[in-house]
Amino acid sequence: MLLQIALDKPEHLAWLPRLKPYADIIEIGTPLLKRFGIGAIATARELCPDIPVLADTKTVDGGQFEADMVFSAGAALMTVLSCAASATHEAVGRRAEHFGASVVLDTITQSGEAELLPPEARFPPSFAYVAVHSPTDRRLAGDVSTAHIDAVHQMHQRGFRVSLAGGIGPATLEAVIAAAPEVVVVGSAITEADTPQEVAQWISSRLPQRGLGWPWDRK
Predict the structure, then answer these.
(1) Would you say 178 and 1 are in contact if contact means Cβ atoms under 8 Å apart?
(2) 3-state SS track over the chain
(3) What does the pLDDT read at residue 134?
(4) Does position 215 have pLDDT exceeding 70, yes or no?
(5) What range(s) does the Orotidine 5'-phosphate decarboxylase domain occupy (predicted)?
């Protein structure tokens, strides 16, 4: 079970040297990517050259152009929304294969639905895993649903590897571990803590070691 630490604000980059011992994946979150562009990817790569960087582009169109930008900047993964057209998925998949990179299928626009992906959904082999993602704004508005945690089992039954994101921290970690996603995504519970390094160490120490290496074998 890997720990992905999500950075959303400029000041979060300052924590990277102290967080990198506990991060298996570093996420350049969408707000940070919009603030600094691909420079944020390059900065993370410079600070943590041995840790894969995920660019949370949430791509929905222009797949080839966005893929070329983030992969050429050093990102090892990027996100594409599950609601994007199949042509976009195919375009991003081709560029990922060209760069030896991987793609994460983000289901955030389907959060809370009974079925996150249609049964006939098919994606290129460069798609590494499905991101089951509870939206930040919904949670800030008072939604305390744990449906995204429950959805991990459904995705596993369908043969997908899963990353789980949204409201994950010390209070929910036990339920998250029980759901057994391959990747646990933690953002503000670490980056907005009084002692981010200590929280990252605590979470990392509790995640089971499942022997999931990098890069993953693709299904």
Answers:
(1) no
(2) CEEEEEECCHHHHHHHHHHCCCCCEEEECHHHHHHHCCHHHHHHHHHCCCCCEEEEEEECCCHHHHHHHHHHCCCCEEEEECCCCHHHHHHHHHHHHHHCCEEEEECHHHCCCCCCCCCCCCCCCCEEEEEEECCHHHHHCCCCCCHHHHHHHHHHHCCCCEEEECCCCCCCHHHHHHHCCCEEEECHHHHCCCCHHHHHHHHHHHCCCCCCCCCCCCC
(3) 79
(4) no
(5) 2-203
CATH (domain of 104): 3.20.20.70
Domain containing 198: what range? Answer: 2-206
- Number of compact structural domains in the chain: 1
Tokens 């102290």: give the residue: 18
> Is the residue at 215 inside a domain?
no
Burial class (CB in 10 A: 0-12, 13-18, 19+), 9: middle
For residue 77, being part of any structural domain is answered with yes
What digits encode the pLDDT tens for the residues 79-136? 999 989 999 999 999 999 999 999 999 998 777 666 677 666 667 778 889 999 877 7
26-45 residues labelled b (16+ CB within 10 A) or e (exposed): bbbbbebbeeeebebbbbbb
- Domain membership of residue 213 (yes or no) is no
* Contact present, 200 and 219 (Cβ < 8 Å): no
